[in-house]
Design brief:
This protein is of the alpha/beta class and 268 residues long. It is built from seven helices and 16 strands.
């Protein structure tokens, strides 16, 4: 951290590796946080429904926190407020945290040095997660028979980087479109949601939107809306635009304008 500060390096963005649509080092997000003079910044999306299993950005005791879905009551999850536009209502706790964060270097150095919190007592709390962990059955074969537990049998202690947020003097949030920036891989191939196949389909849809916006066309208007049939089949056809060609759709016109593309296609 001291070396980064001495070299005037840009603050490091942080993201979850399971989000296929994450915009790594997004200049819009980095610029937003820097211009606002923030200690921390987060990206959020609107929750898909009140009980979506995502943490939400909230104020706890006047401090910014990410509150896990398991810590929110049904009443809180379903609570609503009047929309700022005046049309209808929105979820009160509807800003889902997608684990894309930004931290200023002075804030990181102060936290790491123990200079934050009451009398420098800031630290990351441990979170308890109960997991089903394969093990050996102690009652069979002298403890040599593998066991796949049907109920949680282990306790995992976790540290979350967002537990630094309550110690920030200023935290800012940027809400982004789900379809552009969030396609997590949490489930096995063939699952109805959050699988490798649904993530591929989401990325392909984004690439198709960027190609069409740049003046190109494809033979099928929305080729990847399919998800999958639940039997593990890969959604086809797909389009991938390499980030070496375009980071977020810029500069595509000279490559695609006026052209029709047959999918599957990889622009590289």
């Amino acid at each position: 951290l001291s070396l980064s500060l001495s070299l005037s390096l840009a603050p490091p963005p942080q993201f979850g590796v399971d989000n296929v649509l994450c915009h790594v080092a997004d200049p819009t997000f980095v610029g937003f946080c820097s211009l606002r003079g923030a200690d921390c910044g987060v990206k959020t999306i609107a929750k898909a429904d009140p009980h979506e299993k995502v943490g939400v950005l909230a104020s706890v005791g006047g401090k910014p926190h990410v509150v896990e879905y398991s810590e929110i009551s049904t009443e809180m999850a379903e609570a609503t407020r009047e929309a700022l536009s005046g049309s209808g209502t929105r979820l009160l706790y509807g800003a889902a945290h997608i684990c894309v964060n930004w931290f200023s270097l002075p804030f990181l150095r102060a936290f790491a040095a123990g200079a934050l919190g009451e009398e420098g007592s800031a630290s990351l709390p441990l979170h308890v997660a109960r997991k089903k962990v394969p093990c050996l059955d102690p009652d069979k074969g002298g403890g040599s028979v593998p066991l796949q537990p049907s109920e949680p049998n282990a306790i995992k202690l976790e540290l979350f980087i967002f537990d630094t947020f309550p110690h920030a003097a200023k935290l800012v949030a940027l809400q982004v479109p789900r379809e552009h920036e969030f396609a997590p891989v949490k489930n096995a191939p063939g699952a109805a949601s959050d699988s490798p196949h649904t993530a591929c389909a989401a990325f392909s849809r984004l690439c198709v939107d960027r190609l069409v916006a740049a003046g190109g066309t494809v033979k099928a208007p929305r080729p990847c809306v399919a998800a999958n049939s639940g039997n593990g089949s890969r959604p086809r056809p797909l389009l991938e635009i390499s980030p070496l060609v375009s980071y977020a759709g810029e500069g595509l016109e000279e490559r695609v304008a006026g052209r029709e593309f047959e999918l599957p296609q990889h622009l590289c």
